[in-house]
Amino acid sequence: MNRELFEEYPIPKAIGKLAMPTILGMLVSIIYNMADTFFVAQTKDQNQVAAVTLCLPIFMLLMSFGNIFAIGGGSYVSRLLGEKELDKIKKVTSFSFYACIAVGVICGLVLIFFKEPILKTIGTSENTYQFAKDYLLIIALGAPFVCLQTAFGGIVRAEGASKEAMVGMMIGTILNIVLDPIMILNMNMGVKGAALATIIGNIASCIYYIYYFLFKKTCLSISIKDFAIKSDIIKNILIIGIPVSLNTILISAANIILNNFAVFYGDTVVSALGIAGRVNMIAIMLLLGLSQGSQPFIGYNFASKNYKRMNGAIKFGIICSIIIGTITFLVTFIFAEPIVKMFLSEPPEIVTYGKYFIRANMSACTILGVQFILMSTFQAMGKGGSALVVSLCRQGFAFVPAIIIGNKLFGLNGIVWAQPFADVFSVFIALTIFLFIYKSIKALSHNN
Hints:
By secondary structure, the chain is mainly alpha-helical. The protein is built from 18 helices and no strands.
């Protein structure tokens, strides 16, 4: 562990060293995320594009269970590092490893045995049902690897090893991108090829992380001798991990709700929303990369009671998030039409819809990163309740009423603008909560 980075580096340099590998890894993930849709779109079958879009919430749901251990376990590891409790870190990471595998197996079995009601729930039509079923079954078989890859990218990052976390992410992503055209197009597997390439990529990432734990210098452990089921370990992981997982679950639920409303406007609208959603992930992944990269630094200095450095990191992160969000918004707004045409140019309606959906979805991303930075701050400080409230706002309390009321009053326009409205509302809530906490942080900073 590099204590000098957490304790002595200038804040911009420390955050840059932690966050840049994470952001670069997220950029590769964005390419991978868009590659599945891009190569499936090259089949010229919009029903297959729609099927991948409809199944995306299921994949995100698996990631959400991995995030229980990635963020919950990672936050706990960061605080234990600040408290110099290295032996306990081994127990936390070993528990996270085996518990995550068990969760992944359970998720896979649920997807297999309840595939029919699940496919109905996510909004498949008679045109997309079989494609979605083929995709879902392959993802279900690889569920443990999806969960584990997500979990240990976050835990390795919590140790300050952002570069290694990025490498693990990139190995799987690059392999996925290489396999996509081979399996989807050359082997004529369509959506099956997209799903299989995704799972193979996740398996490769898991192999790398296991190699890291076994052969690299680290205070983390996956040894069975360090495994222990202890209430304090479970509590500290879940108190932070559950709100984060719930946030991703709500994103999945929101996408399912969105797709169920959109399907009434036709499969062309569903496909266009899928393209716009992939583009929106550009901003989300970049901003998440910044916030997740900052979290170990904030958590370490909070536990070390170095509140001045912690506050400086929060302010620096917010400024950077606004800059990244603004640039991303401008680029995607200007080039919305050619971006859609990269995926599909026929029928003409898909370009018209897609361009409009992209611009609407990206309209709030200038300030969206503020929410992510503050979420990471709450998580790093162990304030699970605050993290939970913010999680519930963006995809729950704000989004669900907005899409229901918006659809009733404004039709398709109401559906499209529901998410930007929810984004702005959640940023306001996150800032309000933080301002209540900030007074105590400021007082501690002056006394430190």
